[in-house]
Amino acid sequence: MTDPLLESAAGAAGPAEPLWLAQLRAACEVSTQAEVAARLAHAGDGKYPSPAVINQALQGKYVGNLGRLEALVEGVLLTVTVECPVLGDLPRQRCLEHQSRRSQFAATNPTRILLYRVCPTCIHRLGEKS
Known about the structure:
The protein has helices at 4-12, 19-30, 33-43, 51-59, 67-76, 92-100, 110-118; strands at 81-84, 88-91. The protein is mainly alpha-helical. Strands 1-2 form a two-stranded antiparallel sheet.
């Protein structure tokens, strides 16, 4: 038998938050928002996300696109992997890293050339596909 008070309290809390956001919140409770932001940025492009982005996301006030932050949290904190058509199974944040390299193309090796050609149409690409 369920307790009606517990049911009403659970209903008042609203919909459950996404797993990635709950994991981000838990990481910030163990550490600081600045340290979590630095850990995520280190795994990504070194600049994003800032502690302010983390704070706004946790408060539900971030007006930017949460897709990139979600992908970083999934890759770094939840260790989600994706199946890359070029590299095979790789962590989600590495996928984001390769996506961001597109603007810095250099024909330094065959793998980079393949990534340059395949990333724009990949199903894991954030934003618009080319």
